[in-house]
Write a structure and sequence with these properties.
It is built from 9 helices and 8 strands. By secondary structure, the protein is an alpha/beta fold.
Length: 226
Amino acid sequence: MSTIVDSLQAIQASIVAATVSANRTDKVHLLAVSKAQPSVKLRAAYLAGQRLFGENYVQEAISKQAELNDLAIEWHFIGPIQSNKTALIAQHFDWVHSVDRLKIAQRLNEARPENLPPLNVCIQINSSEEGSKSGVDIGLQSMLAKDISAMPKLKLRGVMAIPAPTQDFAKQRAQFKIVADAYKNLQQQGFELDTLSIGMSDDYVAAIQEGATIVRIGSAIFGSRT
């Protein structure tokens, strides 16, 4: 598991360097995407200092949570949300990054247990306007943000997006700027947001240049998924 430790250290150093290069003084948080990775690898990452873990599949995540319940992990759900999974997500996660429609927000709010703090949520934006991609259209984000803000068991924290993949750094930045502008627009409307969840293993440096506060990295930490 020394490879995971080395990878985490290298990525953290790269994040710091990208933050300095962007003339930023705030902190960029690393979310370790651990879907399809065994619990033993998550434990190794935790022991190396990682605390935020992101999962895409509900049942798999709940199984890992049971195996790792001795660790103070902050669990983030980052995958597409099926209506019949909202109760489990509301009960077992600290954050949800992929809220893209009112129905899902309502179900999460209704299912969040009274004994837990409000569920932190991000609105997923379809920044590239691809029909196959999840996410709310940018033109509808304000309405969804307003609805979520009125829900007592949810806390709106920011926005998330998964732009179309490209290896062109300039194009990466251009796509992330669209998301960052949407995020700033919501802030200007009075929404108290602090989270811009953009950037993955192949493009997180560009995301940091455009203001990412959370980058979601999996394969660069854990290697190929099993």
